[in-house]
Amino acid sequence: MNRRHLIALGAVAPFALPLPGAKAEPVRYPHPDLKTLTPSFGGFLGNTPIVRLFSSPNMYWAEGPAWNGWGNYLVWSDIPNDLQYRWLAEDGHVSVFRRPSNNSNGNTFDREGRQISFEHLTHRVVRYERDGSVTVLADRYGGKPLNAPNDGVVHPNGDLWFSDPGYGTLGDYEGKRADTGSVQPHQKEAIYRLDAATGKLHQVTDEIFKPNGVCFSPDYKQLYAADTGASHYGEAAPPVIKVWDVVEEATLANGRVFASMAIVVDGEERSCFADGIRCDTEGNVWASAGWAGTGADGVHVFNSEGERVGQILLPEICANLCFGGVKRNRLFMTASQSLYAVYTNARGAHFC
User: Fold this and answer.
1) pLDDT (tens digit per residue) in 125-167
2) Inter-residue contact 239 to 272 (CB < 8 Å)
3) For the purposes of burial, counting CB atoms within 10 Å of the CB of 172, is it exposed (0-12), middle (13-18) or buried (19 or more)?
4) Domain boundaries along the sequence of the chain
5) For residue 109, what are the CA distances in angstroms to 64, 134, 180, 191, 202?
6) Which is the CATH superfamily of the domain at 34-343?
7) Among 133, 159, 165, 160, which residue's Cα sits nearest to residue 147?
8) Which residues pair with 223 in a beta bridge?
């Protein structure tokens, strides 16, 4: 084992208090569910467990984790239960942070530490101000409501880039609008940029079936987006991660497939859905993965060329993830009814 996997980023994982009443089976290092698929990938530490920080039978779909460095806490959404949770780093305390949340999905923080949430129920993007008030950042485009804003990231210039696939607003169990029978909600699924200087909303691309998680490359010159269009468009929309070049911090060009979420497990090809995605400082893309079963669900890691180089296997469907902690080297993963975390040999490329 490469010794730097043990001592990188300052030393081993710091002491963490156990959950009240928690019982954990000991794990032999390196953790068997941290899978390094190519020798070139050094993103996993050799002496760290995958920790289940929180789980509840009353939490139905954990989503949208975001790390607040100012407050040293993690916030995430439980969409069906219309609330947000908060996990405190100093003692592992979990509490309901916000209820109702308007069925928020993704969350992030701007460069002033203000929380931004993407709401299904209201079709809008909101910012929570320091005095407790709520500012609506976006709720319409082209004279029509947004579908159901899903995930977003903040550019250093203050602009907010976000996806709007429509999950949460389609009207029946067949995944179509009840009034029109369309798999598209109010308008074509797209990715948007909210200009911080003018407050104007720009559609930057609709060259994607259903844009889900989004993230920037470390230098902000590329934007990645997970495409989960197969949920409604079938084989016409293979589950992939796409990438575009960011032009003058304002538009996108040269859209292309970055990586396929198809994976072979025990000789069988399976198709995962990537949802939340984040880059590390080396340009690797860490993607949540789900709906493909044991041996596939969890997290897939791709290098900058789109080659799958690592996996984290979880016992639940992983919906989203983010880097956090004081060194941005702890990966938090929201997975169905649980919150997981693991220290890594990688650092998140961005503060949230």
Assistant:
1) 999 999 999 999 999 999 999 999 999 999 999 999 999 998 8
2) yes
3) exposed
4) 34-343
5) 12, 14, 36, 18, 20
6) TolB, C-terminal domain (2.120.10.30)
7) 165
8) 216, 244
